[in-house]
Design brief:
The protein is of the alpha+beta class. The chain folds into two domains: 3-156, Ribosomal Protein S5, domain 2 (2-Layer Sandwich), CATH 3.30.230; 160-276, Alpha-Beta Plaits (2-Layer Sandwich). The protein has helices spanning 67-79, 101-116, 123-133, 137-142, 176-181, 203-207, 215-221, 224-234, 256-263; strands spanning 3-20, 26-46, 51-55, 84-90, 146-150, 154-157, 164-169, 211-212, 239-242, 249-253, 271-276. Strands 1, 2, 3, 4, 5, 6 and 8 form a seven-stranded mixed beta sheet that branches. Strands 9-10-7-11 form a four-stranded antiparallel beta sheet. A hairpin with a 5-residue loop joins strand 1 (3-20) and strand 2. Helix 1 runs parallel beside helix 2 and helix 2 packs across helix 3 (123-133). The longest helix has 16 residues, at 101-116. The chain is globular.
Length: 278
């Protein structure tokens, strides 16, 4: 029997790049919100014992480059699962957008298959498996607003109000490794040197901390990002920022009414999504 699971997107309200590690990754500090822009993942048994992954737009890579496939294969190997699975994804989170689609898909698949296959996996073990698939997977397993540190695998709590966003994607795919490779870290700081507020009361409070160390590189690679930011500010957003490694940009709004009103003014640049905190 086929079962459906929602796989949400994320936005980075704050993203500080602290240092480059010997393994090539970067230590970061980021405040993340999960939002109501979803891929839908359908799971059903595959009698042949194989893992089959397809999507409705034909945009996902095949085999080991696909985080959903890697997740299923990791579980099969770790727990000796002989059963096969057929996974179909309705893609709504754009590819190469900085909204965390691949990591979210992996986290959703991990939880879904653990349930479907009856695997008793503890929380720490689940997070460990997620970190092996990708640095951002643990935040989606956590499933709430959070602070990410390390390469993204360390998660701690934060309190955010329910927020409304307009997310704009210019239909341009950005490569995360390429964006990070161009980042120039002027001053290396440890995460303890950055004083993070842990409790926010309003959208205005959140708007005051919007910052992304990757944004200048993103704008150099995709100047449309700056145009989108300007459009969102003109439409009344409290603040606008590139999410993650781009190319999507979100605008933060006081509430649903303001976001929907502004959305009517924003056309002609790629895809526009209205979303809220989940």
């Amino acid at each position: 029997m086929e079962r459906a699971f929602l796989s949400p997107a994320k936005v980075n309200l704050l993203l500080k790049v602290l240092s480059k590690r010997p393994d090539g990754y970067h230590d970061i500090l980021s405040i993340v919100d999960l939002v109501s822009l979803y891929d839908v993942i359908y799971v059903e048994e595959e009698p042949s014992g194989a893992v089959v992954v397809k999507d409705d737009k034909g945009v996902l890579p095949i085999g080991e480059k696909n985080t959903i496939y890697r997740t299923a294969m990791l579980l099969k190997e770790e727990y000796g699962i002989s059963k096969g699975v057929r996974i179909f994804i309705e893609k709504c989170i754009p590819i190469g957008s900085g909204l965390g689609g691949p990591s979210s898909n992996a986290a959703t698949t991990l939880k879904a298959l653990a349930g479907v296959w009856g695997l008793a996996i503890g929380e720490d073990e689940l997070f460990g498996l997620g970190a092996r698939i990708g640095a951002d997977v643990p935040l989606f397993l956590y499933g709430k607003p959070c602070v990410m540190s390390g390469i993204g695998e360390k998660i701690s709590s934060i309190v955010l109000p329910s927020l409304w966003y307009i997310i704009m994607y210019p239909d341009i795919v950005m490569s995360t490794p390429e964006v990070y490779s161009r980042v120039r870290i002027v001053l290396t700081k440890g995460e303890n040197d950055i004083k993070l507020r842990r409790n926010f009361d309003s959208a205005y409070d959140v708007s005051r901390i919007l910052e992304n160390d990757l944004e200048n590189v993103g704008i150099l690679m995709c100047p449309t990002i700056k145009d989108i930011k300007d459009r969102l500010i003109e439409a009344g957003s409290l603040g606008a920022l590139m999410s993650g490694s781009g190319s999507s940009v979100f605008g933060l709004f006081k509430g649903e009414e303001e976001a929907r009103k502004a959305a009517g003014l924003l056309n002609g640049i790629g895809s526009v999504f209205i979303a809220h905190s989940i």
